Amino acid sequence: MRVVSLMRLGDEETRLREQFPEVTFEFYKHPAELPKETQKEMDVLISYHSAVNAAFIEAAPNLKWIAWYATGVNSLPLDLLQKRGIKLTNGKGVHAQQLSEWLFAYILDDFKQLKAVYNEQKDRQFNGKRMSKTLDNATILFLGTGVIPQRAAQIAKVFGMRTIGLNTSGHSAPHFDETYRLADRQQWYQQADVVVNVLPETKETYHLLALDDFKAMDPETLFINIGRGTVVSTDVLVEALKEKIIRAAYLDVFEVEPLPADSPLYDLDNAYLTSHITGNGADNRVKATQIFKNNFAHFLNNKTLIENVVDLNKGY
Question: Where is the D-isomer specific 2-hydroxyacid dehydrogenase NAD-binding domain (predicted)?
């Protein structure tokens, strides 16, 4: 069994070799370092690099499983994996804490007017009369009810927020007061103070949010996108914000990444942008490797995987 990682994993490399001494592990800092012969012979690939495309996979005839260390798998040729019978797992859940912390950093920054407070500081103003909104009894609506929004909804409940979750079927999910069908989303927007997109990119979610979605929201809505940028086009976002159809947006993901320097989003005074960093965490690879270890033990025994298996038909 030959396992190749297209990233260095630090101390986890030694732990993997110790836990699975009968397995050959090879670790490379970049896909360009991978020898062609190794690529042909590898059984398992650990990566989340964009170089893992259709051509790369075609050049790996022995490949049986890709352990993708990111949550989103939309960059992979899923049809080819299905055709080849290659199994795929992802890093679902690894980023839940980091993303949730960033989400509430955005919300608190907005509700507590921290940018305005900082401007008063720079202007040497002491404004003891400033009033701010509270999260208590505010309603937060999530597009998606998976692991990440479940963790965020759990935190929201601590703040006293009402939590609404939208998913494909409207099935219940932990930490949500109410759940409804994503197809019926426009009838629930008006109830939300904060709308958060945490949906993956699939054929069904690409450009899912149209201008009518934003028009269905309350004008005071705060929109946050920490899912996938392609859920809404840049043009729609710009119009919704420029025309004050909604009050403001915090965006970490974009339709095109890196976000072009000439993007009109940079010019909007009610758009606050981060550079797809909300999932970044120093211990992400350790957490993802633990998922890999759990799966690999079963894979060696009976070729089955038990955790974070991606449905190649659905794309998540």
Answer: 105-277
